[in-house]
Automatic annotation (TrEMBL):
Keywords: Aminotransferase, Pyridoxal phosphate, Transferase. The keyword Nucleotide-binding does not apply. CDD domains: OAT_like. This is Aspartate aminotransferase family protein. Gene3D superfamilies: Aspartate Aminotransferase, domain 1, Type I PLP-dependent aspartate aminotransferase-like (Major domain). It comes from Zavarzinia aquatilis. The lineage of its organism: Bacteria, Pseudomonadati, Pseudomonadota, Alphaproteobacteria, Rhodospirillales. Transmembrane segments: none annotated.
């Protein structure tokens, strides 16, 4: 089970009060009682400071990967403050505000070739996924194309959120282990993992097997009943799984052949994380519906969005869905400020370049280490995948992976343990010096921790 590395940081009085009054997600209550929780007192740029005054270089964007512009960004804070003073919230149904409309228009212009010019706003990633599912089903039924479609195909190891519908599509973290029954009509197919797969195939051979499996699954489920297929452009389970362009091209072809809508869940990948506004751009694949959240506001306000094409939106004569805070003006102001900063500072293309720099540093420093199996990623999202045997790619001892992440924390660098891998996913303001420090901490931590494990 993944465990936030932050929970091993020192605690203080506020931590005890938090234990008395707060509920903590996806972690064993006993672990929180023993190790944390951690009080974070402040943050500036790439650094956070805990309640005891110790600084950490945050190379994992507040663990959730949402913090894409660093801490203490006054331009975003001011944009939100100004908007809240002027008009904080005007309701949801047919009242719109300037920042909301501006955001909807800007989102459609970030990837104009995709034609995703209709937006629906929500408060986070799970709500975005819930909304995408409803759009897909209502479209299939409302357009008359598939009047009985209710099935969704998702993938093994997927993470799509913790609300009931999104959870049914999820196959990763303890969220996926909540008791049945859950949303009916969901089936899951293999996902194109990198480095390891259950059949020992080469990465590309396995990717095409996974894509072709989608066709078989659609036939098996009954094409007239399948409303949509959903996938993360890069999957998070076991760290930054980057599929091939051919995989996504084939998926698109299959969806078109059977009139299945393609939902690409960009909640964690969007807004520069992989060095593009949307990760799907790397694969030249056009979704019918796409979801986003997290870096959309750089973590400064809770906002998510769903984008779709006008022909899909217009086929729905009455969208049977609503959230009180949809299109919240203050949240939209945060997202607008984030877009302006990322465009002005050219942070998205810089993230792509930084990724090349970082990966080269990782490969040079760690590439030959016996415990290191694979190094992969794009832009500001990379993973080092571990093994106990480089020849057989045998799984690493989970305690070793966790131990390396904890050692890096003790060296002042926060990263995230993700199954067999450790992920590095810093804000887009991370400098080459921050990447260099991370590579050095990685090397030192692997050397110091892996010697206690049997590695062939
Ligand atoms: N979809 C993906 C791909 C995610 O990575 C996440 C969260 O990590 C979600 C959906 C759910 O987002 P949220 O936690 O904002 O509800």
């Amino acid at each position: 089970r993944d465990k936030p590395v932050l929970n091993a940081l020192p605690k203080n009085d506020l931590a005890s009060q938090a234990l008395d009054h707060c509920i903590f997600p996806i972690i064993d209550a006993a672990d929180v009682k023993r190790d944390g929780p951690v009080v974070i007192a402040s943050g500036k740029g790439m650094t956070i400071t805990d309640g005891s005054g110790v600084d950490y270089l945050d190379m994992i964007s507040a663990y959730t990967r949402a913090n894409s512009l660093g801490y203490g960004n006054e331009e975003i804070a001011k944009a939100v403050y100004d908007q809240l003073c002027k008009m904080h919230y005007a309701g949801t149904v047919s009242m719109v505000t300037e920042p909301m409309v501006q955001l909807a228009k800007s989102l459609s212009e970030l990837r104009p070739d995709a034609g995703l010019s209709r937006a629906f706003f929500v408060s986070g990633g799970s709500e975005a996924v819930e909304s995408a599912i409803k759009i897909a089903k209502q479209y299939q039924i409302g357009s008359g194309k598939k009047p009985h479609a209710y099935k969704i195909i998702a993938r093994w190891s997927a993470y799509h959120g913790a609300t009931a519908g999104a959870m049914a599509l999820t196959d990763h973290l303890s969220v996926a282990q909540t008791p049945d029954p859950r949303m009916p009509g969901v089936s899951k197919i293999p996902n194109p993992t990198c480095y390891r797969n259950p059949f020992g195939m080469g990465d590309e051979e396995y990717a095409m097997f996974c894509a072709d499996y989608l066709e078989q699954q659609i036939i098996h489920e009954g094409p007239e009943l399948v409303a949509a297929f959903i996938g993360e452009p890069l999957m998070q389970a076991n760290g930054a799984q980057v599929p091939s362009k051919a995989y996504w091209q084939r998926v698109r072809e299959i969806c078109d052949k059977y009139g299945v809508l393609l939902i690409i869940d960009e909640v964690i990948c969007c807004f520069g994380r992989t060095g593009k506004w949307f990760a799907a751009e790397h694969f030249d694949v056009m979704p019918d519906i796409t979801t986003m959240a997290k870096a959309l506001s750089a973590g400064y306000a809770p906002i998510g969005a769903v984008l779709t094409r006008p022909d899909i939106a217009d086929a729905i004569d009455h969208f049977r869905h609503v959230h009180t805070f949809s299109g919240h003006a203050g949240c939209a102001a945060a997202a607008n400020a984030v877009i302006a900063i990322k465009q002005r500072e050219r942070l998205i293309p810089k993230a792509l370049e930084n990724g090349v720099y970082f990966k080269a540093g990782l490969v040079e420093a760690l590439g030959e280490m016996p415990a290191v199996g694979d190094i992969r990623g794009l832009g500001h999202w990379h993973a080092v995948d571990f093994t106990s045997n480089r020849k057989t790619k045998a799984l690493p001892d989970p305690k070793m992976v966790k131990g390396i992440a904890e050692k890096m924390r003790s060296l002042g660098v926060l990263v995230g343990a993700a199954g067999t891998a450790i992920e590095v996913a810093p804000a887009l303001i991370a400098s080459h010096a921050d990447f260099d420090r991370t590579v050095a901490a990685f090397k030192q931590a692997i050397e110091s921790v892996s010697k206690d494990y049997d590695i062939a």
